[in-house]
Amino acid sequence: MNFTFGSPWWLLGLLSIPLLAWLRGRTGPESAFVYSSLSLVKGITELRRSRAGIVLLNLRWIALALFFIGMARPQVAGGQAPISASGIDIAVAMDMSGSMVAEDFELRGERVNRLAIAKDTLRTFVDERPADRVGLVVFGTEAFVAAPPTLDHDFLRRVIDRLELGTINGEQTAIGSGLATAVNRLRQLQSKSRIVILLTDGQNNAGKIPPDTAAEAAKALGVKVYTIGVGTRGLAPVPQGVDGFGRKHYARVPVDIDEPTLQRIAQMTGGKYFRADNTETLRRIYSEIDRLEKSEAKLNKYAYVEELMAWAVVPGLALLFLELLLGNTVWRKLP
To answer: Is residue 89 within 8 Å of residue 28, measured between CB atoms?
Structure first.
C-alpha cells in the first residue's frame, strides 16, 4: 500500500489558515449593546466568548483545512509490481465496406456477419496484448482513424464496440488507403517493432493509393503487415430482408477476396497472409507476433488507485453545516 496525493500543491493552503486566523483576530471586537454597568451582563458575555465564539470559529478552521486536504486528492495505491513492456506498436486496419454484412460466421452459437466476428477477434487480440500500443483504422470507400495507437485499451474496446456497418461510406473498398493510413499512424512512433494487421473481405476498387504503393511505403518504414482475408470460401449468405415472421431472407453471393494482392503485401513487408474463415485464425497471428523481437523494459505499475477525497470533503461539509446551524440557533450572536 502506498499513500500519496494526486494534487499535493493544494496542501500549501493549510499554511494560510494561521494567517487568516491572525487577520480575523485584528478586525476589532464584536458588536454589543451599551449597558450602564458591565456587571449586568458579565456572565452572558463570558459564556458567548468562551463557548460560542471559540467553538464555532474552530469548526470553520477545521472545515477549511479538510477542504484543502480533499482538494489535494489523497489516494492509496496498492499492488505495486514490475511488468514488462514489449516495445511493439500495432495498427489494425479493418474493412467496413458493405460486403462485411455477409453472415458466414457463427459466434457463440449464433449466425453473425463478418464485422461482428472481426470485432470479437480484435477484442480478444487487444486483451492478449496489454503491454502494446494498439490503434485502429477503419476503411470503406475512404479510410479514417478510429483510435490512434494507445495503451488505454479500455478506450480502444469502447471504440470497437461502437463500430457499426453504415457509419462510414462503405459502398466500395479502399484497401490501399486503409493500409496507408495505418502505416502513417505508426510512422512517427519509435519502437522496436511496428506492425499492421489488415482485415478485408474484398478487392481494392476505391481510393487514390494502390495497395502495392502502400505496401512499398510500409516496407521502407520497416512496418510488417499481416493480411487477413475475412470470409468463407465459395458462396456467402447475405441478408436480403425479413418475412412476416421476422425471419431473415438470404441470397448466396460469391466471395470475392483478392488473395494474390494480400499475399503480395504480406510478402513484401515480411508479414504473413491468413484466410480468416473461423476465430482460430487470429490466434495464429498472435503466436506470430509473440515471436517478434521484443524490447523489454521493467516498469512499476499499481494494480489499483483508490481516491480518498470524499473522506476529507464530506466531514468538512458536515462541520461547516454544523457551524452554520449552531451559529443561527442555540449560539446565535446578539445583534
So the answer is: no
**Residue 34, burial from CB neighbour count under 10 angstroms (0-12, 13-18, 19+):** exposed
Tens-digit pLDDT profile for residues 278-333: 777 767 776 776 666 455 545 555 556 678 888 888 888 888 888 788 777 766 65
> CA–CA separation, 98 vs 173, rounded Å?
9
Gap between the Cα atoms of 235 and 5, Å rounded:
61
Task: List C-alpha distances in Å: 261 to 178, 227, 231, 233, 256.
Answer: 14, 10, 16, 17, 12
Domain boundaries, the chain: 2-78+304-327, 83-298
Contacts of 322 (CB under 8 A, 6+ apart): 59
Strands 273-276 and 74-78: unpaired
* Ramachandran area for residue 164 (φ above 0: left; ψ -120 to 50: alpha; else beta): beta
Residue 299 CA from chain centroid, whole number? 20
- pTM as predicted: 0.63
In terms of C-beta density within 10 A (0-12 exposed, 13-18 middle, 19 or more buried), how is residue 232 classed?
middle
The sheet carrying 304-307 orders its strands as 2-5, 74-78, 304-307
**pLDDT single digits (tens) 178-188:** 999 999 999 88
Which helix (H) or strand (E) element contains residue 187?
helix 175-187
What is 285-335 written as a DSSP string?
HHHHHHTS----EEEEE-SEEEE-HHHHHHHHHHHHHHHHHHHTTTTPPP-
Task: Report residue 236 as a C-alpha cell.
Answer: 456467402
Q: Which fold has domain 83-298?
A: Rossmann fold (3.40.50)
Judge contact between 196 and 143, C-beta under 8 A.
no
Identity of the residue numbered 88? I
Distance CA 97, CA 112 (A): 16
Beta strands in 96-165 (DSSP E): 105-107, 110-112, 133-139, 143-150
**Range 145-183 burial, b when 16+ CB lie within 10 A, else e:** ebbebeeebeebbeebeebebeebbbebbbbbbbbbbbb
